[in-house]
Design brief:
Blueprint (H helix, E strand, L loop, with lengths): L4 H142 L2 E7 L2 E6 L11 E6 L6 E6 L4 H14 L2 H16 L1
Antiparallel strand pairs: 1-2, 2-3, 3-4
Amino acid sequence: MNISAIEEFDELQNQMNEFSAHFEVALTQKRSNIINDKQSHYVKVNEIKNQETQLQSEIDGLRQKEEKIKNTIKKTMEDLQFQKLKVEELASKQDNLIDEKAKLQAGLDELHKSIHETNIRLTMSQSSLAEQVRRDYPELQKYERYLGLKIEVVGQDSLKFVFNNVDPADLDKEVWCELLVGGEQFQLGQTSPTLAPDIVHIVEGEFNQHKEFVKFLKTIRTLLIDALQ
C-alpha cells in the first residue's frame, strides 16, 4: 500500500509531537530532579554546617574541660608538693623536738644525779656534824653553862649559835652567828654583830680544815665580842 507524502508528513508530525511531549516530560522531570537535588544538597550542607558547628562547640567544650583538668592536676600537684613540704617540715620539727626532749631528759638525769650526790654529801655532812657534836657534847654543856651558849635550828641546813654573858654592863646583851651545814663545806651565814668578809673567810677556812666544833665556837665567840667594841 502506497502512502502519500501528506500522510508521511502527518505521521512524522505525530511522531515529532509525541517525541516533543515525551521530551518535555523528561525535561520537566529532569529539572524537577535537579531542583530536588539542589534542595537536598542545601539541606545536607546546612546539616553538615550545623553538625560542624555542634562538633566545634563540643571540641571547644572538650578543650575547656581538658584545660580545667590540666589546671586541676597542676593545682593538685602543687597541693601535694606543699603538703609534702609541710610533712617534711613537721617531720623536721618532730626530730628537733625529739632531740630537744633527749637533751632535756639528759639534763634532767644530770640534775637528778646532782641532787642525789648533794643529798649524799648532805647526809655525810650531817652525819659528820652529828658525830662531831656527839664528841664535843661535854664541852658544849660547859659552854651552855658558863658561857651562855644556846643552839637553835633555824632551817633544814642551818644552825644558830647565840651567846649571852658577853657584856658585864648589859646582861641581856647577845651575840650570835648562823652556820650553814648543807654544803660540802661549812659556811658562816648572818652574824650579829656583822663580821668583816675577810674575817669570815678565815674562820670558814680554819673550821673546814680542823672541823673541831668547840674550837670553832671559842673562835667565833671571841670575834663577835671583839666586834662589839
